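Issue: copy button drops trailing tokens. Both records pasted manually instead:
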Amino acid sequence: MMTYCAHKGLRSDDWVSSSDIRNSAGEDILKTMEVKSMQTKVIQCINRVRCRKVTDALGNCDPTDIYILLPKGKLGDKLLEGIKKEMPDIRTMDWNIKFTEAGRKKRSSKFEDSLIHYFANMNAGQYLAKDIKTHIGVSTRQWKRLIEKLKDETSELFKSMKSSGVVLVQSLKGRGSTTIFVKA
């Protein structure tokens, strides 16, 4: 912004925040300045590695591999365009990354563990859900989340409870409904 004002003169806050203000390419000035600022930061980061160290009299440097994830879409394209403009000899290559969640364990809430542990120590029979809710000390909001997971046949909680021989049974909906757990 300071550079712009140095060339064009001081502007008011209203002028800068107005979405009607466009640059020569027809883009919002503030968005353009944000992209330019990001481009500058990325280029500075790239130059902090070995490519900034000059190795001969011509100003060349050793080849350097840099891996960077840029956002998809227009923003990523503009960032890459700016990098290529400022670093004309840079060579870019796409690389495919597949992010998987295989190594990531889904966290269960302490109340899920409490519910599983509660029924592990119980005899076969029917148990009122409201009594269990009170016994394990879960809030109404968290209890609703637990019930949703217990209804979802793909959830880990559902599978764990089913393997323990426990099922959730709801009679009716709304007022007058009764929710019970049945342990076989």
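Record 2 (pasted manually too):
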Amino acid sequence: MKKLICLLSVIGISLSLISQSLVGLPSETNIPEAQYPKVNEDLSATFKIFAPEVTELQVDICGRRYPMAKDADGAWTVTTEPLVVGFHYYFLLVDGVSVTDPSVDTFFGCGRMASGIEIPEKEENAAYYSFNKEIPHGQVRECHYYSEIEKKQRRCFVYTPAEYETNPTKRYPVLYLQHGMGENETGWSRQGKMSFIMDNQINQGKCVPMIVVMDYGNCGYIYGAKKDETREEFGASFTPILLNDIIPYIDTNFRTINDRDYRAMAGLSWGGHQTFNTTLNNLDKFAHIGAFSGALFFIRKENLKEAYNGVFADAATFNKRVHTFFLGMGSEENMGSKAVSDSLKEIGIENVFYESEGTHHEWLTWRRCLNEFLPLIFKQ
């Protein structure tokens, strides 16, 4: 056994590939046959890493560091406190150096590649974002195009509903769905489980079949990483790219309904801020708007009617043009969305506010927000 462990350590494979335990189940994000990390019945997570030459090893999850204990064979283990349900980025601190866990898939978040672990909800609560083998499923396509604005190649991911291939003459509305700071265009389809949410809602008749476009919002690093960049400049280059490169590309290559009434945009966190900047300054192109835990701190109650070139000054006109105006957030975060929603209602701006009970600034909040937003759009 010790010889096998030494061989595995030489090729960089964790002891988690061969360890067995009666406690907990392997995380759904583990690589094939990896037994650790495990999610336990009390929603804690157990990590086990074979690293005999390391002197200190910690798990950094949700901003909290858990020191690991080393046994005589060089295997390090730790069990966390119970974690909140949903998806969490985490890292290993190996003698002070932050690295990803070789036993799990990596996800782009926190401005870098990160390890990820899903703490599962009860099956009935997670059904809306879970794979259902009994229903038709759409496709998420990886597309590459050339940006005339940036003068370089870019990538987007495009969801098409299951009927897209079998209904070749039908045209579809489009939702442009944005990630947050430190993430990229893969976030919604991987961490967000967007395609399963879409498939389940379409099958149940809760939302209309639509195309969903997920592109890079030019904010995949943490604000402050680019020297002398102001907060107003952070991610601002995305708007002209969306308007001049992405939308024309999608309308040319997919069967879209090229009309503002059938075009929506929504985003989480900084993507919510970008959504407001883009849509509210271009209402000739968008009629459905959503911000999930949106970074809306630029909006002040005292200057609402001057914000976004005065778009809120005439409530009747705004309400007629914007068919869906949605603000959502988790009950345990402090993004200010409720205050913005209330202030808008005070001046006559119709909007829908949703609060995800018990969740923080995290992907479970944003899955729930998307689930609430989708039935509202394209119903005119």
